[in-house]
Design a protein that fits this description.
- With 320 residues, the chain is an alpha/beta fold.
- Helices cover 27% and strands 14% of the residues.
- The protein has an eight-stranded mixed sheet.
């Protein structure tokens, strides 16, 4: 168990490097963003999930952590042991104290020993130093605000707008949202809200790739913003915010939204807000009723009942 946990620390180092822009390439799942961008937003859940595991929490069914690779047209990067060593070395050298070098890895060696064994090809620019990171921040940014008190995730490739203010169009499932896009009822300037797609509400946080791709197909990729308590694919374009927490199924503020509410995205200020007072949101939530679960029995029903917030890694927690 000790080696298993320390192994997760080594993976955490690799994921952390992706988050702070050390890779001179893009992220996972076939994304096509700028160098240093990230791909799918899953990694923020992976980070929280690993941290929960280190704290002795029970892990939810594992999301895939294998595809931390991206073909940029010049380099294909796969996070294997040798690259993990180099990432750890870069982090140790660039941010002393960030990693605990004394922790054991599954090899029986400490993290520090593995890092010092890293061999770097002269002139390689795939994994950069902290001082020479491709970008000052990674391609995923965490926003908070009265719509996401526990946080949410926006994927930044460098081309999408940093601010957006518009009226909400609220949908209670991905299917409802897709129907609205394909029926051409979404207008430029609006904010699509897709809720009840979080860890519990989905259950399982489906990717909203279909909706975002449909928006691009309708020519609305740059003029319509989207927020959800679900996830996004690495192929997503435009201003899209996912992992909104607490989720709607757990009475998060996103459950209080109504059509026409003005939603404000401010990436530079790291904020996601609705132009409502805290009192207004609380009053609306007093009348909120938990929707009928999509699964009433079986594994999915059990998962939906036990899963925690995306902000905590969507780990399953036994009810006391």
């Amino acid at each position: 168990m000790k080696n298993f946990k320390s192994g997760k620390r080594l993976l955490l180092a690799a994921l952390l490097a992706l988050s702070i822009g050390l890779f001179g390439c893009s992220g996972s799942n076939g994304s096509n963003g700028a160098p240093g961008a990230t791909g799918a937003t899953d990694r923020t859940v992976h980070l929280a999930l690993i941290e929960a595991g280190l704290a002795g929490r029970t892990l939810a069914p594992r999301a895939s952590q294998r595809r931390l690779a991206k073909d940029t047209g010049r380099t294909v990067v796969t996070v294997r042991r040798a690259i993990k060593r180099l990432i750890a070395k870069k982090l140790i050298e660039g941010k002393p104290g960030l990693l605990d070098e004394s922790q054991l890895t599954p090899t029986g060696k400490t993290l520090g020993e593995e890092a010092r064994a890293a061999k770097e090809t002269p002139g390689q620019d795939v994994i950069r130093s902290v001082a020479n990171a491709k970008k000052a921040t990674g391609g995923l940014v965490i926003l908070k605000g009265n719509l996401a008190p526990e946080g949410c995730v926006v994927k930044i490739s460098g081309h999408e707008p940093q601010q957006h203010r518009g009226p909400a169009r609220v949908f209670n499932s991905e299917e409802e949202a897709m129907k609205a896009v394909t029926s051409k009822s979404i207008e430029a300037g609006e904010v699509m809200v897709i809720r009840y797609e979080g860890p519990s509400g989905g259950p399982g946080m489906r990717e909203m790739l279909g909706v975002t791709a449909a928006l691009v197909g309708e020519g609305l990729g740059e003029s319509v913003a989207l927020l959800t308590d679900g996830r996004f694919s690495g192929a997503t374009r435009g201003l899209m915010v996912g992992h909104v927490a607490p989720e709607a199924a757990r009475r998060g503020p996103i459950a209080a939204l109504k059509d026409g509410d003005i939603v404000v995205f401010d990436v530079n200020a790291r904020r996601l807000d609705v132009e409502l007072s805290d009192a207004d949101i609380a009053k609306r939530l007093e009348n909120w009723r938990e929707p009928e679960p999509r699964y009433k029995s079986g594994v999915f029903a059990k998962y939906a009942a036990l899963v925690s917030s995306a902000a905590e890694g969507a780990v399953t927690v036994a009810k006391s």
